[in-house]
Automatic annotation (TrEMBL):
<feature type="transmembrane region" description="Helical">
    <location>
        <begin position="66"/>
        <end position="87"/>
    </location>
</feature>
<feature type="transmembrane region" description="Helical">
    <location>
        <begin position="289"/>
        <end position="311"/>
    </location>
</feature>
<keyword id="KW-0472">Membrane</keyword>
<protein>
    <submittedName>
        <fullName>Ionic transporter y4hA</fullName>
    </submittedName>
</protein>
<feature type="transmembrane region" description="Helical">
    <location>
        <begin position="218"/>
        <end position="237"/>
    </location>
</feature>
<dbReference type="GO" id="GO:0015385">
    <property type="term" value="F:sodium:proton antiporter activity"/>
</dbReference>
<feature type="transmembrane region" description="Helical">
    <location>
        <begin position="102"/>
        <end position="123"/>
    </location>
</feature>
<feature type="domain" description="Sodium/calcium exchanger membrane region">
    <location>
        <begin position="34"/>
        <end position="188"/>
    </location>
</feature>
<feature type="transmembrane region" description="Helical">
    <location>
        <begin position="347"/>
        <end position="365"/>
    </location>
</feature>
<feature type="transmembrane region" description="Helical">
    <location>
        <begin position="7"/>
        <end position="28"/>
    </location>
</feature>
<keyword id="KW-0812">Transmembrane</keyword>
<feature type="transmembrane region" description="Helical">
    <location>
        <begin position="249"/>
        <end position="268"/>
    </location>
</feature>
<feature type="domain" description="Sodium/calcium exchanger membrane region">
    <location>
        <begin position="222"/>
        <end position="363"/>
    </location>
</feature>
<feature type="transmembrane region" description="Helical">
    <location>
        <begin position="317"/>
        <end position="340"/>
    </location>
</feature>
<dbReference type="InterPro" id="IPR052946">
    <property type="entry name" value="Alkaline_pH_Ca-Antiporter"/>
</dbReference>
<dbReference type="InterPro" id="IPR004837">
    <property type="entry name" value="NaCa_Exmemb"/>
</dbReference>
<feature type="transmembrane region" description="Helical">
    <location>
        <begin position="34"/>
        <end position="54"/>
    </location>
</feature>
Length: 366
């Protein structure tokens, strides 16, 4: 066992998470010069690739849809820790950080990951095929969570501004947890077949078509290294965030761009894993990752920041601006039209990517 563990650590996918966590411990809380920012960025990218590798090992061991759920939940839990930490350090400046990061995650996953995977899958075999029942249930949950958490605060009257009152925030947090819990139960227990890959003829694929699943010991080793890699990704992202904030301010860009950068960094492992699945004709797995990440981002972040707001001094702004509400409405409407047939051409992928591009352009130049 010790020999196998040593061999796993000597491989780059095992060494990188350990070295990245060591680098994180050495640089935590320090002001990084340019050279260290470059070094940290390199380890950040390597940790992302290592996280994707170990997530795929675990996914191969436990099968779908459990594999995509492991990565989505693991990334989101650590993303929540990053958001809360930055909010605690940022004071009033961080009042809208949770909203900006969550909305960026929704747009990146529902338009970026979904659009890219539909495009890759459709270009590979003409039409990207997926299960409309499972994907529709995921999209409906994302739409409900987004509306309750990011749109309603603009129209409540108990407190001024895009904010919930304390009872309203408690309700939003509980509703998010309950809906997310119900979805996970549906995905993994009651209707697991709705979230399995399907063939062009509609046949459910319940087995993998490549190598034998890894052993239980190898999967547990990958689980531990995945946790280390994700901690390193989020911690190192926090370390370079001052440089990102300075760069955003120096470029004269809105502060909300910082939320986009954080979401892009944190969601990079899921994006790579989703595209790889689409290239293997597992489009449903890609959609599970994309929509599952959006759902986890809202369903776990809103309750976490609701609890954190008890001791955080500044306000908590959750309501989106008018432009972002329009983009969210378009995303939900286009997503619904994409999901209903259970098939997508490259056009649908291009439409979703166009919405992501519009979001980024309007974030940079509102």
């Amino acid at each position: 066992m010790i020999a196998r563990l040593r061999a796993a650590l000597l491989h780059w996918t095992g060494a990188v998470p350990v070295l990245a966590v060591v680098l994180l411990a050495l640089t935590w809380g320090a002001t990084l010069p340019v050279a260290l920012v470059v070094l940290v960025s390199c380890f950040l990218a390597a940790a992302v690739l290592a996280a994707v590798h170990h997530a795929e090992v675990i996914a191969h061991r436990v099968g779908e849809p459990f594999g995509s759920l492991v990565l989505a939940v693991a990334v989101t839990i650590i993303e929540v820790a990053l958001i809360v930490t930055l909010m605690a350090d940022g004071g009033d400046k961080a009042a809208s950080l949770a909203r900006d990061t969550v909305f960026a995650a929704v747009m990146i996953t529902c338009n970026g990951i979904v659009g890219l995977c539909l495009l890759v899958g459709a270009l590979k075999r003409g039409v990207a095929v997926f299960n409309s029942e499972g994907t529709g249930a995921a999209l409906a949950t994302v739409a409900t969570l987004s509306g309750l958490s990011l749109v309603l605060p603009n129209f409540t009257t108990t407190t001024p501004g895009p904010r919930f009152s304390t009872p309203q925030l408690v309700f939003a947090a509980i509703a998010a947890l309950v809906l997310y819990g119900m979805f996970v139960t549906t995905q993994t227990l009651r209707h697991r077949d709705y979230f399995l890959p399907v063939t062009s003829s509609g046949e459910v694929i319940d087995t993998e078509d490549h190598a034998r699943p890894p052993s239980r010991r190898a999967a547990l080793t990958s689980l531990g290294l995945l946790a280390l890699a994700l901690i390193a990704v989020v911690g190192l992202a926090k370390g370079v965030s001052p440089a990102v904030e300075s760069g955003v301010a120096a470029a004269g860009l809105p502060a909300s761009v910082v939320g986009i950068v954080i979401a892009l960094l944190v969601l990079l492992p899921e994006t790579i894993a989703a595209v790889r699945a689409a290239r293997r004709d597992r489009v449903q797995t890609s959609l599970n990752l994309g929509l599952g990440s959006a759902m986890a981002s809202i369903g776990l972040t809103i309750p976490a920041v609701a609890v954190a707001s008890v001791w955080l001094a500044g306000p908590l702004y959750l309501g989106l601006g008018a432009t972002h509400m329009v983009l969210l409405a378009l995303t939900i409407m286009v997503g619904t039209l994409t999901v209903i047939p259970g098939r997508a051409t490259p056009l649908q992928g291009g439409v979703h990517l166009a919405l992501l591009a519009a979001y980024i352009v309007l974030a940079v130049s509102p």
